[in-house]
Amino acid sequence: MDPVRFINQVAAQGAQNLRAYETHIAENMRNSDNMDELESKFTSQCAQTKVMIQEKANQIVNAVIPYYPNSWDPNYWEKRQYYEQLAEYACAHIDHMDDQFDGTFSRLKNLFQRLSTWIRNKVTQVYTAVKGFFRGAVNRIRGWFS
């Protein structure tokens, strides 16, 4: 499959999944008075969201890296230029997923106030881990041509 089309498809799936998770989390938090059940569901959803985001970003990274040319290739510079353009395109999509994640997190933040301090700390840890993962994915792609 064409890598640009694949990146678009993966990013669109990631955005759709993120919106679905946000809706599901918000509905659970609004419709539940049982804090233990709510915190259990919320922790599970956060973990699923983190895994999904990591999978999507990894798919994008793995779609790009094979296009890095071998130095002995007679068309090295031409292929490297294509790789750099593809890499920047992929990084822009990962950055966009990062922005979408920030938006999701900020929209749900006022709902988090109902949760215990322990769960809020876990949510912050998930948020920090995902933010770090986005930076790591971008750095892995850019690292190939720096």
Calculate the mean pLDDT score and round it: 82
Q: Beta-strand level of the residues, as a percent range?
A: under 5%
Structural class comes to mainly alpha
The shape is elongated
Helical content, roughly? over 70%
CATH topology: Glutathione S-transferase Yfyf (Class Pi), Chain A, domain 2
Low-confidence stretches: none
Number of helices: 4
Note the run of SSEs as H and E: HHHH
Strand tally is 0
CATH class: Mainly Alpha
What would you report as the Rg, rounded to the nearest angstrom? Answer: 18 Å
User: What characterizes the major β-sheet?
Assistant: none
The N- and C-terminal alpha carbons lie at a distance of 26 Å
The tally of structural domains comes to: 1
CATH architecture: Up-down Bundle
List keywords for this structure.
146 residues; Glutathione S-transferase Yfyf (Class Pi), Chain A, domain 2; elongated; mainly alpha
In short:
The protein has helices at residues 3-31, 35-64, 76-112, 117-143.
